[in-house]
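Duplicate of #3305? Posting structure anyway:
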């Protein structure tokens, strides 16, 4: 049970990263390979707000999401908008941004890992199961944000515009939808979710310039498993991979967790090439 809870905590963080990737891919048809570095920037932003400016984690978390969201506006306007819908050039730009942001982090922050400290000290013990408050909070924050995103998409005009653009960008523009505004909004939301995920992971473990590599690997694995462009698929895929990462090390080893996870993805893609919830 403890391993399951640990896996769920990791799974919800994977989901927040994957949802940002899904939004950007669904609306701009861009695989944002620099998304892991956005996740890393969010962790560093929270770290500096807490350690150097004395903010509590609960103030630093939304502030880092806001600040990194502003970075998303810059990325969308000047780096990705000119290549929207052009798959290969956008990948080159995204990989270039990934290397640029990682290098800036190494030069600016150094290569040493940094700890921002836990959100809430101590652990929760119930019936022999021990779970740190940090992991429990990561689960709760993930659930709340995913529910808020579903409500945004289902109940607001902006959310419906996002759905329309993901289905047919040209038809959506002919209906009067401002594609540029919605694309920028999607990038802001995606970057904010990544920043929150990075902050949560930084509070549980530590922060380093290279933490984005594992995040983007997991995020892409989640959306491939769940289905490209599917928000429901991102949630289900993240939970599956999180549970694998929680349970497999208990039975085999941490190295085998990655092998089993990608093995599951391969099997799913053989049986259903579009992923669990993917569509044409």
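Output from current build:
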């Amino acid at each position: 049970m403890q391993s399951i809870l640990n896996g769920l905590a990791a799974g919800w963080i994977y989901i927040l990263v994957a949802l940002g990737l899904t939004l950007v891919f669904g609306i701009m048809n861009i695989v944002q390979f620099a998304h892991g570095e956005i996740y890393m920037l969010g962790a560093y932003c929270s770290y500096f707000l807490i350690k150097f400016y004395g903010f509590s984690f609960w103030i630093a978390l939304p502030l880092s999401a806001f600040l990194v969201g502003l970075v998303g506006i810059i990325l969308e306007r000047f780096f990705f908008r000119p290549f929207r819908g052009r798959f290969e050039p956008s990948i080159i730009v995204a990989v270039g941004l990934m290397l640029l942001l990682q290098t800036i982090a190494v030069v600016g922050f150094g290569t040493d890992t940094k700890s921002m400290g836990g959100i809430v000290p101590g652990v929760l013990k119930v019936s022999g199961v021990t779970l740190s408050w940090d992991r429990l909070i990561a689960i709760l924050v993930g659930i709340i944000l995913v529910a808020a995103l579903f409500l945004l998409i289902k109940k607001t005009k902006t959310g419906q515009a996002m759905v329309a653009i993901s289905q047919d960008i040209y038809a959506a523009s002919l209906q009067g939808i401002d594609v540029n505004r919605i694309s920028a909004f999607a990038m802001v939301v995606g970057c904010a979710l990544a920043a929150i995920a990075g902050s949560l992971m930084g509070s549980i473990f530590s922060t380093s310039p290279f933490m984005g590599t594992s995040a983007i690997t997991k995020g892409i694995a989640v959306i491939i498993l769940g289905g490209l462009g599917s928000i429901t698929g991102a949630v289900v895929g993240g939970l599956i991979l999180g549970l694998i990462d929680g349970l497999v090390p208990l039975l085999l080893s941490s190295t085998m967790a990655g092998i089993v996870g990608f093995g599951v993805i391969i099997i799913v893609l053989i049986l259903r090439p579009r992923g669990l919830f993917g569509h044409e």
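Confirmed duplicate; merging threads. The radius of gyration is 18 Å. DSSP finds eleven helices and two strands in the chain.
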